[in-house]
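Entry for 5-amino-5-deoxy-1-O-phosphono-D-mannitol complex. Fields follow.
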Amino acid sequence: MCGIVGYTGKRNAAPLIVEGLKCLEYRGYDSFGLAVMESGDGSAGHEDAAGKPTVIKKQGRISDAGSDVSVACGNIGIGHTRWATHGVPSDVNAHPHTDCSGDIAVVHNGIIENYAELKKVLIAEGHVFKSETDTEVIAHLLEKFCNTADADGLIGDEKIDFAVKNLMNTLEGSFALLILIRGFNGLIAIKRFSPLVLGIGDDELFASSDMTPILEHTQKILFLEDNDYAYLTPDGIRVFGYPSGEAVEREVKTVDWDVESAKKGGYEYFMEKEIFEQPAVFVNSFRQKIDDGAISVLKKASSITVVACGSSYHAGLIFRYLMEKYCKIPVRVEIASEFLNFTIAKGTAVIAVTQSGETADTLAALRHAKANGCPVFAVTNVLGSSVTRIADYVLYTRAGPEISVAATKSFTAQCAVLLRIVSLIGKGIFEKELFEIYPVLEETLLFDPADASAVCKDAENIFYVGRGVYYPISLEGALKMKEITYIHAEGCAAGELKHGPFSLLTPKTPVVAVCTKDDAYPVMISNIKEMKARGAPVIAIGSSGDKDLKEIADIFIPLPRSENICEVISATIILQMIAYNTAVLLGRDVDKPRNLAKSVTVI
Ligand code: M6R
């Protein structure tokens, strides 16, 4: 996730872009940059913009930048605050990216999935690349298409239309783009699967990843749809649909949100916003290409050990159940802080799972594995983080920055990457189901947690139970509940309750049971009956249309109708929503629970 912002009007663009980027810093903050250019006399539409864009870009946070970044002159500008996905955070990898001539400047939020193939072709055609990013191909493609348009005698709108349509035809992946082209008197905005909104002021126009930078200047917001492209010029905004190229009308809404709620996309807390980002985050994380070399090392390993902490440890446990079942490779999962106590079998590959890439215990465990001669892997969300410098192979989750201390989207993104490994080693198992999971997760988010939260909020202890892969999901559900509500919650393998915890069950101890129609279903039903017999109220999450479970449970939460593997992710999201809603009912500081830090860099 990155933030992009654009301006065209009569004012000097640079200070407005800088202020806009500060509002978008929650979307990424490892580097920033802007490009501005001066329009001509504004009379003729496309041929009158003067000069090349001036580009300033740097590693670091825009909020720490000096006043020198605002000095560039020009009344048309674009800016970017970055959360690196391709290419480490550095001055050269910061956006905007330019073509060979420097006449075209581009800022991008999203991922270009086919950039490696495109880059190869462009280099063979003589284009010179400066950065390691996926985005730079966009600038060079535009250069190529503009040159073709020039050679064909196309000018003005026709030339720009030609370049934009060919660009949209060529790119695969997700992108919100803002583009400056020398000679075009305004901004070009393009949207596919990444957010982009436009603002309409008095004699000035704005573009941004969200409304926060715009609201200070105007409340009139135009929401672009996927595959829209728009020209923002002194004549106003013109929006077109791809591939038809026909002009389309998009409603302009008056929005009266304050800046803080706009940053959270209208959600009350970042945690809620991050829960709702999961359909896109999961799909982006699962669909990415994974290095064949990495997969072949894992395939050849005699066993795999995962080292991780907290939620990341739970993602490792889910991986274990699925890998062992479908790929028959033995997997051990260790809490990173305990790993140094154990021996590592010869031929073991070790995977560190860590959102931040900075958790001290996980780094120590991975260093220990490396010192013992194991091939070491990292699954992380942060490009260039410490773990990426230790690992031989790095697999990235595509969650974007997670602001809330409680892991939600980063957890499901870890599951996505780990499931992708299972799928690649397991000859395509789950591939079709998980490529198509998006609508299932969207439907999951329609769940109303009110009834379940009403039961949980008054409890002092809550048990979470499941079997098989739903055991780690129960652990994760309990962790979410305890860390943000401060209610004691314990995840248990459903079969274990009768070996001790049964003595704690009373009518005041709710049990959250995850019980879908998988192999463990019959025995889970017996376990739930045993818990009911001890007087515990049961909140059961199960497969759609399960009449038996509905009958037994006090509250039955049906998952959307889908394949077993998709139910695993849906159930996780339901548990997050129950914990979140309970914390809100209790008035907790949801994004910053007491005593916790997002990244634990001490042992
Ligand atoms: O950054 P990491 O994934 O290494 O962090 C590990 C844990 O600290 C983390 O998952 C923690 O348990 C979550 N914030 C819980 O929601």
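NOTE: The chain has 20 helices and 24 strands.
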